[in-house]
Each structure stands twice: as structure tokens, then as C-alpha cells.
Structure of YecA family protein:
Amino acid sequence: MAQDLTPKEFDELDELLAHTPGDLEAMDVAMLDGYLCGVLVQPDVLPMAEWLPAVLDAESRPLPADADPAWLARVQALIERRHAALREALADEQWFDPLVLQLADDAEPDPEEDPAFTALPAVSKPLVPFASGFVTAINAFPNGLLSLTHDDIQQALDRICRHLPSTTDEERATTAALDVDVPLKTLDDAVEDLVMAVVDLDAITSSERFHVEQRVRDTPKVGRNDPCPCGSGKKYKACHGKT
């Protein structure tokens, strides 16, 4: 069983990512959680080497040559454990507990805050980092989930993207329609719907992810009583077909 991170280890990972060397812009743990889920619902199993660079920098720039190996090893170990725990939770429980941004109830409005973020419903604002990380992963692998034509994929993606600021009339219309069809009255409602959207995507892609292609023979199968293809004149079972 995969051992998930403790609250103390989540805090440790967040601190380590905040001190990523150089001028790199690493994710925080809430955005990382969404990103890992976006990686996990891809139709292919992606190796860590393909998706880790975007965690450590928004532009996937390499680490400085003098980056501390101990720092990197600890970061990778913690991320791998969270990745494995999420994978197990999706497969076995069809549920996981996402990391949600903690917002102060009495926080004063920030005049420099993005108006699009300000316009978001209160239940969506704590989920912005997770949704942003998830979308980052989806866009990072355009030949993955986005290449599939399953009818329910876009609907599930819309349920996650509704927690991000809308930038186009189409996005605003989609969010408005969801607000009517699937209203979210509380943060618990929003978290449950977001998690189930990820679970739905995981279910859609699981058959692709674990699909095993059948081997096609280039030549007909040789029967045990057929002449051996080597030309010895013996039956296959008495020649190269011996076991």
C-alpha cells in the first residue's frame, strides 16, 4: 500500500518547492496535487522524467548545475509518494482528498487581485491552484487525454475548469450552464464534484492505459507435427520444437 504524505511532509514539500534553486518558478503543493491528477488520468502511463520538469519550473527549464542533489532527491521522493498514493486511491477507492487552498474568511480585498479571480464564486477560489495544475498537465500532453474522442471527457474537464477564471465568452457560457445544471452551494459540494470529475476521467482512460496489444505473427504458426522450418526434414516436435 502506498504511504501518503503526512501533513508535516506536505508542509516540508511546499517549503522545498518554494526554495527551488535559481530563478525557476516551481508549483506549490496545491497546484502540484492537481498536476499529478492530470498526469494520472492520461491514457498512457507517463514516466516521472517526462512530467517532473514542469513541477520545478513553469517553463520546464532545467535545474542549475549546482543544484543540491540531496534537495532534489528529497523533493522527488515526496512527490513520488504522493503520486503513488493518488494512483492507488483512484484505482481502489475512486476517491482522493485533494489539497485545497486555505483562504481567510476575513481577508481584505486585494486591489491588485485579478478581476477575473475576484469574480469567481467563493466555493471555487480555494480550488483554483488544483484546477490550474490539472489543466497544466492536460495541456502539457496534447497527444494524451485531449486526443481522445470520448463524449464524457469534455464535460468532466468543464467541471474542473469551472474553478478557473473565465477568459472567453464561451468559457463563461459553459460555466453558467454548469451553475444551473450542477449548482455548488458549499465548498464541500465543489470538492466532491471536482474529485468525481477526476475519477470519471480516470475511469474513461483506464482501459487505454492498461491496454495490451496482441502480438501479430509475421509467419504462420508451425504445428508440432509439421516439417521443421529449418529444412532438416524432421518434424518440428523432433527438431527445433523440442521442449
